[in-house]
Write a structure and sequence with these properties.
single chain; alpha/beta; FAD/NAD(P)-binding domain; D-Amino Acid Oxidase, Chain A, domain 2; 2 domains; nine-stranded mixed beta sheet; six-stranded mixed beta sheet; 22 strands; about 30% helix
Length: about 375
């Protein structure tokens, strides 16, 4: 294979999914990450608010979060999460309390006065009761991505940016990848391409898993003049509504938690989504949003059952899925990357994950016919 860069594992996608599994694999194999953009984390990973909490995802995703919290704490900071409920959302709050109890979280249940004690801008009618998670984490996404890239490099691997994939073929027991930066080959190919994961599968003649990218919009605006909001909690409705959190001492971030289906793309915020986010904050709080300082959008990618997809594709030796993390990519990365690395190399399922009730079958693409 003259003129071709050969390694043990090729990972397509330099977001948190691709970099975290590549860092795990680098201890046992020669790994190359192919990233189409000019830098890792350009799309969903670079646009994530990345706050680790238990109000996100289904039961296996919450288990992955619990298994990841210890490692996440090394690159995150403890910051309380306030989950608020209106009268019709009380059953959802009860369910969420059950989740926190199950994982032995440091939490407390409070009434409206207790909630406003933490989040003074809440209007009384916006919160009948709330749950405070005292151990949730505000994550440093840049630090996490850089830490994984450093681990990859220390293990002899590397990230090659500006490598747009144009063709994928299985030849002589290796995957050959044709890109804008040259040809690459390896017996194992990990598909961590996020919103583009199904497109990569089609190039490789692998059955797609039905990935649905969904756009989410975030707005930034000034806190009330003279108010230090840095200690305000991450505040989130347990059902439809919004989330709100501080960004430093004088800025706030908010989202209506929109999930608009989208084609894979360089997502941009739409005026309607910006307006909805601002309106929901103003309806539930005393915060006047006179000017949007900044807004952005990213794509969160989901499989049909909203579980991550990890494992070998049927009938495609060496093709390994690592996709469908939804909005939980950062907060599940430690545990999920351990599972994906074990699947890629044919190693046993991580014992600590099995002890929590998970298995390869939980995330296998076979459940989706892929």
């Amino acid at each position: 294979m003259a003129g071709m860069f050969v390694s043990d594992v090729l990972v397509i996608g330099g977001g948190i999914a691709g970099l975290s599994v590549a860092a795990r694999l680098a201890a046992k194999a020669r790994v190359v990450v192919l990233e189409s953009e000019s830098a890792p984390g350009y799309h969903a990973s670079g646009r994530s608010v990345a706050f680790a909490h238990y109000g996100l995802g289904n039961a296996p995703v919450r288990t992955l979060t619990a298994l990841s919290m210890g490692e996440l704490a090394k690159l995150g900071s403890i910051h309380p999460a306030l989950h608020i409920a209106s009268a019709d959302q009380m059953p959802l709050l009860d369910d969420l309390e059950g989740v926190h109890r199950h994982f032995a979280c440091d939490y407390s249940r409070v009434g409206p006065d207790g909630a406003r004690g933490l989040m003074p801008a809440l209007k009384p009618e916006a919160c009948l009761a709330a749950l405070i998670d005292h151990g949730s984490l505000k994550l440093d996404t840049h630090a996490m991505l850089q830490a994984h890239a450093a681990s990859l490099k220390a293990g002899g691997g590397k990230v090659v940016t500006g490598t747009r994939v144009s063709a994928i073929a299985r030849e002589s027991d290796v995957w050959r990848i044709t890109t804008s930066a040259g040809d690459f080959a390896a017996p194992i190919l990990v598909n961590a391409a996020g919103a583009w994961a199904d497109e990569i599968a089609r190039m490789a003649s692998v059955t797609p898993i039905g990935i649905e990218p969904r756009r989410r919009t975030v707005i930034s605006f000034a806190a009330p003049q003279g108010e230090d909001v840095s200690r305000w909690p991450f505040t989130k409705t347990v059902g439809e509504g919004f989330y709100l959190l501080p960004e430093g001492r004088s800025q706030l971030l908010a989202s209506s938690m929109d999930q608009t289906p989208s084609d894979p793309c360089d997502a941009a915020p739409e005026e309607l989504d910006i307006a909805i986010a601002a309106d929901r904050v103003e309806q539930a709080t005393t915060l006047p949003i006179r000017r949007i300082a900044h807004s952005w959008a990213g794509l969160r990618s989901f499989a049909p059952d909203e579980l991550p997809v990890i494992g070998h594709a049927a009938g495609a030796p060496g093709f390994v899925w690592c996709a469908g993390q939804g909005g939980a990519g950062f907060q599940t990365a430690p545990a999920l990357s351990a599972i994906a690395a074990s699947a890629a190399l044919g190693l046993p399922f991580p014992e600590y994950c099995a002890a929590a009730g998970l298995s390869f079958e939980t995330f296998a693409p076979a459940r989706l016919g892929a």
